[in-house]
Amino acid sequence: MHPPLTLHRHPMCVEIIEEFQKCHTDHPIAKFFGQCTELKIKLDRCFREEKALKRKANFERSKILKERIQAHRKEMTEKSAE
User: Fold this and answer.
1) Which burial class, exposed, middle or buried, applies to 13 when counting CB atoms under 10 A from its CB (0-12, 13-18, 19+)?
2) Is residue 51 part of a domain?
3) Which GO cellular component terms are attached (predicted)?
4) What's the CA gap between 2 and 42, in Å, rounded?
């Protein structure tokens, strides 16, 4: 199962999504018998790569946020100690 195939949400996979949707419209019955399987595999790989990039970016943002929070906490404990 894949996420909804909206082009604006998956900028890395636009070409593969369009090919996959075209395959489904061109082969309405054969799609059930593996006509579009190779495109589906490419699409899944693209989604995995996209998700890995998003995960890495989120992790980097979370590290920055943790550092800011720790600095703020340290600053607040220093102020309260005075």
Assistant:
1) buried
2) yes
3) mitochondrion
4) 12
Is-contact 24 36, C-beta < 8 A? Answer: yes
Tokens representing 14 are 């636009």
Using the 8-state DSSP alphabet, how is residue 48 labeled? H
Task: Flag whether 41 is in a domain.
Answer: yes
- Its domain, for residue 46, covers 11-81
Average pLDDT, the chain: 91
Q: Is 6 left (phi over 0), alpha (psi -120 to 50) or beta?
A: beta
Is 71 a member of any domain?
yes
Question: How far apart, in Å, are the Cα atoms of 48 and each of 10, 53, 60?
Answer: 11, 9, 18
- The DSSP call for residue 13 is G
